[in-house]
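The following block was generated as part of the benchmark described in Methods. Ligand: aspartic acid.
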Amino acid sequence: MQKSILIIYTGGTIGMINIPGKKSLTPFDFEQIRRHVPEIEKFGHRFEAVTIHPVVDSSNIKPDTWVSIAKLIKENYSEYDGFIVLHGTDTMSFSASALSFMLEDLAKPVIFTGAQLPVSTLRSDARENLISSIEIAAADKDGVPMVPEVCIYFEFKLFRGNRTTKHNAEDFNAFLSPNYPTLAESGVHLKYHARRILKKDRDASLKIHTRLDNNIAILKIFPGISEYTLDAILGTKGLKAVILETFGAGNAPTDPWFYEKLKTANDAGIIFLNITQCTQGSVEMGRYETSEHLIKAGILSGFDSTPEAAITKLMFLLGQELSHEEIKLLLNKSLNGEITIS
Ligand code: ASP
């Protein structure tokens, strides 16, 4: 059956070219992607493409781009069966995580993809990534989309977007989903794992949230961290929340000054979320003595959240008209499958 797919192009390596006289790669327009992957016409689907200008290397993605993507999806929601976002890999996990929170009651696929090599190069991974993403965005079972979530498709794997992190700058398999299994894999067949995919209410209509608050900081602790570093971060103008990247299962130094400063800031209204520096596993405060003081200081567990999901979830929650207590309550819940709460 013919499907309608909207491709939203933001930039990234997939569409980059070498401009004569310049050594580095520069993002270029969508038409050259279409030219290099003429196979997409064989699907027989209806494709439209929109470009968010200026096209950027994803290191230049800002929350404004997420708002533009959310608005484009909302405006075109009834007209298309699925959406593909072409995006640089460097910050793709941030964008996919942010969109998973901004698109409430999403019931259609939004598939982020890109490439590690420009589409114009012979060995590019762009073709496979784009073609399989289209197939996934168009896939349905009895008229119901197979994957009604914000995902990343890359190198034969479909991931829940807010579970991903970019872990490899060299290999084609750039992404990991360390704490949640893949939603589908592409081999001879595209194999979907229906039980891992979110179930959505088909009758609810899509709502978008476009207010995000970036008054947050991330503090990665290390042996020997000084009071000055902590003071500098806690003294950030306008600061509302801090993600504490701790050791192992959520542990941190027990020095009295460390505890006192966190407790004082927490009492003054700053929200602290504890996530682990380990790629895999979850924070479990209270398992070791070295995390008991964090509980006493009022710090919340970020469970097995990726840093990308923790940052964008906080930006999203702080941007809503919610009380401090409501935000804390929602941080302890999985909004769109971003954390595992046992
Ligand atoms: N620097 C590029 C970007 O994130 C890398 C890529 O797309 O793979 O835009």
